[in-house]
Amino acid sequence: MSQPAEAIRGDAVRPAARPGRWGLGAPNYAASPAALPTVLGLPVLLWQLVFFAAPLAFLVVITFWQVRNFRLEPAFVWDNWSRILGSDTFHKALAHTMQVSTITTVLALLLAVPAAYTIAFRLTARQRDVAVAALVAPVFSSYIVRIYAWQVVLSPQGIANSLISAIGLPALPLLGGAFSLQIGLLTLTLPIAVLILVFAFSGIDRTLVEAAENLGCTRLNVFLHVLLPAIRPALILAATTTFLLAFGDFVSPMFMTGSKPPTLSILIVDTVKSGSQWPRASVIGVAMLAVLAVVVCAGRWLGAERRPKAKTS
Amino acid sequence: MQKSDSNAKRSASSTGLSRRAVLKAGAAATSIVAPSLWLPVHAADPVTLNYLAWPGNADPTIVGEFEKANNCKIRIKEYVGGDQMMAVVNQSPPGTFDVVMADAEYMHLLKAANFIEELNPADYPLKDLWPEFQKFPLHWFDGKLYGVILDFGYLGISYNTKMFTPKEVSSYSVLFSEKAKGKVGFFDWYLPSMGCISLSNGNRPPFDLDAAKFDGLKKKMFSLKPQAAGFYTIADIFSSMTNGRAHLIPGIGEWITLGLRMDGVPVDTIIPDEGGLQYTESLSIVKGTAKRDLARKFIQYSLTPRAQVAMATKVDNRKSIPSIPGWKLLNETKPKEAEILRMTLKGPNVMDEYKAKKIQLRQLPQKQSIEVWNDAWGQFKAL
Amino acid sequence: MTAGTPPLDDDVDMAARQRRTRLSRLAQYGFLALLFAFMATPMLVVVVFSFDANRFPTIPWGGFSLKWHRAVLEDGMIADAFLNSLTVGFGTAVISTVLGFAAAYIDYRWRFRGQSAFVLLVAMPPAVPVTILGMAMLAFLSRIGLFGTVEAIMVCHVVLATSFAMALIRLRLGELGPEVEQAAWNLGASPSVAVLRIVVPFCKPALIASFFLSAAVSFDEFMIAWFVGGVHETLPVRILNLLQGQVNPKINAIGTLVLVVSITLVLLAQRFMRVRTGRPTATA
Predict the structure, then answer these.
(1) pLDDT tens column, C107-145
(2) Are C240 and C222 in contact (CB under 8 A)?
(3) B50/C contact by beta carbon, under 8 A
(4) What is the pLDDT of residues B158-177, one digit of tens each?
(5) In this structure, which of A121, B273, B331, C226 has its CB flanked by the most CB atoms within 10 Å?
(6) Per-residue buried b or exposed e for A169-207, using 16+ beta carbons within 10 Å of the residue's own CB
(7) Exposed (0-12), middle (13-18) or buried (19+): which is B127, by Cβ within 10 Å?
(8) Which helix (H) or strand (E) holds B57?
């Protein structure tokens, strides 16, 4: 009984989930009958395999199929790949989507870090709870409707311009360009970025901060040299999440800029809506996944490169 | 601390636990059964007529009377653009839909996909229609009738009357003017948009182009890019004309501007000198339907004067109607509306443009595939 | 400080530093306020303009009116969509919570080969752009004949929501010391009984939070539902179709309704999971 107990004890004493440290060493099964893990594990595993992994695998398969008369037919052709990868429209959409997502990521981090710092360190516990609740709420409440609302605010005769002309300035073209697009994407990504960083800042060992201050660091130095390095993984996570969300978004580009120019997700929807070109849309989808995989890997590499100087565990 | 917590919880919930387990199981079972609870079980429940159509066509003001009279419910599946319709058609198993509203130029595709049934002309009041519509060519194949015209409308340039005078917009060249830079919106569907640009290039008919003319069309379209404000969904067309994001939109018509104008927005539609397009919406019975009689009744109902008037006076997306008794009823009961809709019996009305040969029927591309035109549109968007 | 003596250098420094601190604090609070204003603006606009008598939300305000809310309540398609959303949401919440608990517990309790692959499989769905996910699920489900049903939407939403449920429950499980279960085993409980009677009650807050969060995820999800649902629309799909198909002043009223429901669900979830802040990471 001691061996499995040790395994479990070792498991639970470890700090909060950090993937990559498990799965090492010899398989170590609990002495309890295998019935329990099977009963628990099989449904989840099967569900994810059938309804998540299989569709994605099928997507790759479809990229080789053909569409005749609006109907999907099994085949094996490279035509879809060559057509999409060689198409100018795709290249432009890819470049545009990458550029836009990168800008959003940078903006989101610039805005989220100071905000998260303030929430984690400068608010009372009660205020912090309220702030977190206020951040979590938008994440799950009808993104489309909120983007539609931004149209009302930013349009040439909308709320913002009414205020601007009320003070005598000429109306600004706020809607339809990069500005409104970033506002839309930040609406999507900023709450999540701030939340991630708030949790990260909150988990920092306060004694480290005290030690640094006792050693004569100004608050700014504490921030730059103790706090930021300590939350490096969270910064990477926030950046990756923001990039992922902005890269795959279709609502903001469509409603804020009128698909001018289209992003990759809009391209997918367009390809599907006109002529049901599933294979071509799947090619775009697989290409997007490839790009995202590269970005995520780059993020993990950046995060794992150096051990954080201020150890927090 | 955690141990005492869990101890306390354990004693508190030892009975609650079994209750919880039962609740969980019950909830799981209910969630699986629940959807089927919503399916009509009794014969007295209304029959559902599944309708594939453009948005807004199952409005109670139009179909309410039919639903009540026949104890049925119209369930609509909306599509935007004929290509989307074809996609849905080809992916749905037979029996999914009972009635389909299609743009007339897609009829032959529907017939080729074996999606629609032959209709009996005697069932429908075709003689009540304006003579131009009585034997509408796109509805007949091999002398057999496959669709009945429901409504129609013209497409030209919709414009903001405060920014442009009617004289200025009397030609499509206004789209290229300096004044219109960054203010030309587009309906994100290649067919009407490219059709109007084709007209502006002098192509009559606009969809029957040889390779050289098609290249010319592409060039002209791409040259419009600096003028473009965006590519809009239908809702965004309404809002962009209202909030000033776009001042000109080609390829749409009174189905957008009439409702807006009646709400006080300064917009109007004009058919430019180069000509305009006509869209025609038609009803057909879907092959494989189990409710053929009900579907037939629905089409008949849609051509009655009352239904036609309802169609013409819908709050958004107003259409022109082809039924002469419908016009008469409209003029009797809503003379003011008849005037705004330009469907008065005396004086100039919508049929005039048709008679003056300014209108070209909107068609599918004749010499190139839909894909080629669509790709060109995609290229234009991405420029 | 006694009156009459000149201020010491240290005191001057301190005063200056205090002033700087106060300014920077002010700036921080101000920045935070701006941020929350940014996030609140669209929601406020939706709610405020849902009472606008005008058909199109423009300035100036057209007068207060309840007619759009009334229209929403009377609209049959919206009612259907709302019912579908409720059904799908409830089903998703139940199944995701169960599956999420299973996944979290397995991850917590055992070490095995392929563990990180397993966790990744459950955690990955939200990372895939919904357009791609929706398209893949549609193609796959229509191939196996499940396309176009409410159940199909629910099944796909579970894939998404289980990830969140697992994360939440795993967080809570991280606070459960292994001694508790061991004590139960030592006292003669079988592992399954230990799970049911010890672990599950301990995780109750996380389970409830997962329930509401999964419901919120499902309630707000429109892309997958749009692809997979066929004739059956959930409420967000109805909104998406309205926004694509026609102008409709009801949108703001529906939006208000959706906001209220979503925020309620999220706040309920919140109530059961608190943020622990300021604690050293070494568990007490």
Answers:
(1) 888 888 888 888 888 988 988 888 888 888 888 887 787
(2) yes
(3) yes
(4) 999 999 999 999 999 999 99
(5) C226
(6) eeeebbbbeeebbbbbbbbbbbbbbbbbbbbbbbbbbee
(7) exposed
(8) none
What distance in Å separates the CA atoms of residue A47 and residue A268, rounded to the nearest whole number? Answer: 26
How far off is chain C from B125, nearest CA to CA, in Å? Answer: 30
Q: Considering only CA atoms, which of B229, B237, B230 is closest in space to residue B316?
A: B237
| Residue B231, token pair as written in the block | 């590519």
Are A282 and A63 contacting, i.e. CB atoms less than 8 angstroms apart? yes
Q: Is C274 helix (H, G, I), strand (E, B) or coil?
A: coil
Q: What token pair was written down for A289?
A: 């996944």
**How large is the average pLDDT for residues A141-154?**
86
Burial class (CB in 10 A: 0-12, 13-18, 19+), C12: exposed
Element at B73 (helix H, strand E): strand B72-78
Q: Is C280 helix (H, G, I), strand (E, B) or coil?
A: coil
Peptide bond preceding B35 in cis form (omega within 30 of 0): no
Residue in B17, B60, B80 nearest the CB of C201: B17
- Can you tell me the ipTM of this complex? 0.80
The residues with which B250 forms a beta bridge, in sequence order, are B157
According to the model, what pLDDT value does residue A23 have?
37
Please write the tens of the pLDDT for every residue from B88-128. Answer: 887 777 788 899 999 988 998 888 888 888 888 888 888 88
Q: What ranges in chain A are assigned the alpha helix state H?
A: 2-13, 35-48, 54-62, 79-85, 88-122, 125-139, 143-154, 159-166, 178-202, 206-214, 219-221, 228-230, 232-248, 251-257, 264-273, 278-304
Q: How many CB atoms sit inside 10 A of residue B327's CB?
A: 26
Contact A275 B83 (CB under 8 A): yes
Mean pLDDT of the residues in chain C: 83
* Residue A253 CB coordination number (10 Å): 25
Verify whether the Cβ–Cβ distance A70 to B243 is below 8 Å. Answer: no
Contacts of B87 in chain A (CB under 8 A): 70, 272-273, 275-276
Q: Do B90 and A176 touch (CB under 8 A)?
A: no
pLDDT above 90 covers a percentage of chain C that reads 17
The residue ranking higher by pLDDT, A240 or C60, is: A240
For A72, residues 6+ apart whose C-beta sits below 8 A from its C-beta are A62, A65, A66, A276, A278, A279, C139
Q: Residues 6 or more apart from A209 whose CB is under 8 A from it?
A: A222, A226, A227
B101 touches B52 (CB < 8 A) = yes
Structure tokens at B64: 């309410």
Tokens describing residue C110: 């055992």
Q: Alpha helices, DSSP H only, in B289-383?
A: 292-302, 305-312, 324-333, 335-340, 351-355, 370-382
Q: From CA B159, how far away is CA A266, in angstroms rounded? A: 27
Tens digit of pLDDT for each residue in B63-93? 888 988 888 988 888 888 888 888 788 777 7
> Distance between CA A211 and CA A200 in Å, rounded?
19
The answer to whether the Cβ–Cβ distance between C102 and A44 falls below 8 Å is yes
